[in-house]
Structure to design on (215 residues):
């Protein structure tokens, strides 16, 4: 029985020493303020392993303390390994993202340089073409532009004038109809109040307006 307890203590010491070494490596390799997943995994594994080991040790001849130590060491080791794998994946992803950003920056720089070079070439071509343009050709182009602008203005003015005439005619006709309707209404109202026949007056007003009498 004593040999079993001694062997259990040795195993637990080895596991604890291994997990401690793993934790020290994780802490020393972590450059950020937040703990690495290796350290976090080792700590979580140690806690869970310690609890599980204590339960197992309590139900066996190992003892609660020995079981807790062994479980903590094993949990820290396994959790640390899992954390190291995740840290390695995170570092690879960060490296990939850094390479992608560097590529995009280099591509943007290259495109900017190409655009600048194209603008410089276009400017040189424009200057070369400018030397070949005579004053007579330039004046002729300006005169054509002036004539075209005047023609466009005249057409726009004619269009606006035609629309204005149509609008004024529609407004006049609409107001005439409204006025005649109001005249007829008032004539009928006054004739009714006076006891007269409004038909002759209505016929006279219709004849004066040039429209056929309404039966």
């Amino acid at each position: 029985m004593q040999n079993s307890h001694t062997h259990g203590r040795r195993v637990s010491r080895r596991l604890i020493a291994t997990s401690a070494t793993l934790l020290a490596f994780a802490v020393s390799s972590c450059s950020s303020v937040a703990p690495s997943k290796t350290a976090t995994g080792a700590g979580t594994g140690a806690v869970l392993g310690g609890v599980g080991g204590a339960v197992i040790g309590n139900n066996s001849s190992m003892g609660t303390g020995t079981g807790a130590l062994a479980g903590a060491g094993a949990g820290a080791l396994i959790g640390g390994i899992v954390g190291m794998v995740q840290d390695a994946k995170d570092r690879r992803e960060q490296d990939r993202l850094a390479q992608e950003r560097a590529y995009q920056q280099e591509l943007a720089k290259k495109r900017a340089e190409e655009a600048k070079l194209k603008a410089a070439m276009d400017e040189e071509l424009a200057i070369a073409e400018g030397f070949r343009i005579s004053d007579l050709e330039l004046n002729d182009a300006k005169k054509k532009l002036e004539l075209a602008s005047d023609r466009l203005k005249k057409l726009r003015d004619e269009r606006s004038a035609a629309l204005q005439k149509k609008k004024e005619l529609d407004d006049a006709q609409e107001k005439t109809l409204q006025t005649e309707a109001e005249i007829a209404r008032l004539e009928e109202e006054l004739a009714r109040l006076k006891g007269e026949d409004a038909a002759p007056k209505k016929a006279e007003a219709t004849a004066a307006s040039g429209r056929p009498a309404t039966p």
In short: The chain has two domains: 2-106, 152-209. Residues 29-33 have pLDDT under 50 and may be disordered. DSSP finds five helices and no strands in the chain. The helical segments are 2-29, 37-58, 64-131, 135-194, 199-209.
